[in-house]
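User: Structure with zinc ion, tokens only please.
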Amino acid sequence: MLVDYHLHTVYSRHAVGSIEAYLARAKALEMEEVCFAEHSPRPFLPEKVQETIPYKWMRDHELEGYLTDVAEAAKKTPIRVRRGLEVDYFPGYDEAVGEFLTGLPLDFALGTVHFMPSHDMQYITLIEEAPVTLLLEYFEYARQAVESGLFDSLAHIHLVWQAVPWPEGGSEELAVEEALAEVVAAARAQDMCLEINTRAFNFEGFGSREVYQKYISLLADYGVPITLGSDAHAVDQIGRNYPEIIRELHHHGIHEVAVFEKRERRMVPLGRKTTKVAVGR
Ligand SMILES: [Zn+2]
Ligand SMILES: [Zn+2]
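Assistant:
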């Protein structure tokens, strides 16, 4: 089954295209189910903390309109359309985030670490820092986000190894690999998904196929369920890099992907019906 569980809308203020246009494109790509995961407002943070974060994205008062717009568009397409949010994690506000999320009619809560409290809330890919330090700090926040138990999946963990180079060999590489493995192990313990964000295969910045393959291997080794999403901010980005990534996942023995309804998870076969047959050729 083809699904895309990470779509944005104009509510983000940095995506383009109508919800209807996204759904038309998804249908043309033979997607059976999609989930919008718009950047959530952050009313769960104290005002003074909110002010330290450089991007506001969706405003508090727009959340209802977003959820309504997605529900209305869903009525006009044969594709199953789920309602999600991409929610920033900041250590120390777990309870407030939990209350925020349980009060919403959501199918899917996608946790995310974009901003680093250790670096004045800068966006991860814009931070200049010693690579190993940043990698370890990022994985620490990611692990805390997983262990919070607040989310159904955690978005694009590759952002950090796109921001700085992965160490090559020696004790530094071991330490970083171990920290990534700890995030994956935490997801296993939490029975939570981690995201395969197919934008990773654009290999922006220091992003590389080799490091992404390490991540996929860890997911397979620990048996962590995945969500799959393109992080589309424009209609033509829906399902980006899917054939390549789906091939890679099957190669690592990952043959299922998670879908959600009212935050209940279900696993479905990954890819088109013919994809599995093509594997191994
Ligand atoms: Zn994101
Ligand atoms: Zn996103």
